[in-house]
Amino acid sequence: MDGSGIQIDDEEASTSSWESTDSDESYIAYERLPVETFRRIERNDDSLRSLNIEPYHPNRIPPPENWVALGRNLGRNSHMKNLTITTGCIDWEADGIASKENMEAFCSGLSQNRSLEFLQFDHFNFQQVRLETLHPFVMQNNCLVDLQLHSSGLCTRDIERLSSAFSQRNNPSSIKSIGIGGETINDDSVEAIVELCSWCPRLRKLDLDFSKIGSQGCNALDLLLQHQNPKLRCLSIKHNKLGNEGALVLATALINNKSLKRLGLREEKNFVWRGVSKKS
Q1: What 8-state DSSP symbol labels residue 134?
Q2: Do residues 199 and 172 make contact, with C-beta atoms less than 8 angstroms apart?
């Protein structure tokens, strides 16, 4: 913790996503998408609150009709609170199971959901699937608290369009946590991310880990830390390309920031900040 009361977090300990759901929720992690799970989602089973799809093995990837049906059923479901989709093992170029048509049909169905509070896409290829397909979900789901888009091929234009969708949210104050990270997130992306955050007046956590943000991107974050989002409590920018220049920009921005309580950093180099000393 530095002199301003901000905790500098440079460890690999995971930072949990915003938690807002009931403690009695059901958690289902499945590989071959059991028929009974589909039935529970389709009949709007109020005991099924969380769903985690992590097909890490190619033989466990849901078949095409399951993706389409899952999206449609989730769109109609009113009790699901948490949904995580991880598709890291899929060969998007060769695998017909994860074709653009199938995955867009999944997202189109999901976009009708109005109950999810937490939605995470991890290694979901939004270079193949249009992110705009989910815009109705972003604009009209008044329950959404936490949106995580990690290593999903987002470009600056995608984030700009997502920001436009956020500007039209019926309930902007519900958003407490946003995560946008990955190899395609760089300095050019940060201004669009800051603009997106400006539409979330009660945002408390922003996760930009495992991106390629450098000193230029830190200049854009300066606006976020000094003038916007007075409710922001946690900023995580681990495994980026900040360098000493970028770190100094952030340190200067934090001098007058009274709200931030946790700053997540991890780099290859040692930093010496104005008022903050950090060693990797």
Answers
A1: G
A2: yes
Beta-sheet pairing, 271-272 with 277-278: antiparallel
In angstroms, the CA 146 to CA 154 distance is 18
Element housing 27 (H / E): strand 27-30
Which residues are 178's β-sheet partners? 147, 206
Q: CA of 122: how far to CAs of 42, 173, 202, 220, 239, in Å?
A: 24, 25, 24, 25, 17
pLDDT, tens digit (0-9, with 9 covering 90-100), for 141-198: 999 999 999 999 999 999 999 999 999 999 999 999 999 999 999 999 999 999 999 9
What is 58-110 written as a DSSP string? Answer: GGGSPPHHHHHHHHHHHHH-SS--EEEEE-TT--TTT-GGG-HHHHHHHHHHH
* Stretches in the chain below the pLDDT threshold 50: 13-31, 58-59, 268-280
Rg (CA), the chain: 19
Distance CA 149, CA 123 (A): 8
Q: What residue has token string 């449609």?
A: 72
Distance CA 123, CA 139 (A): 23
pLDDT of residue 28: 43
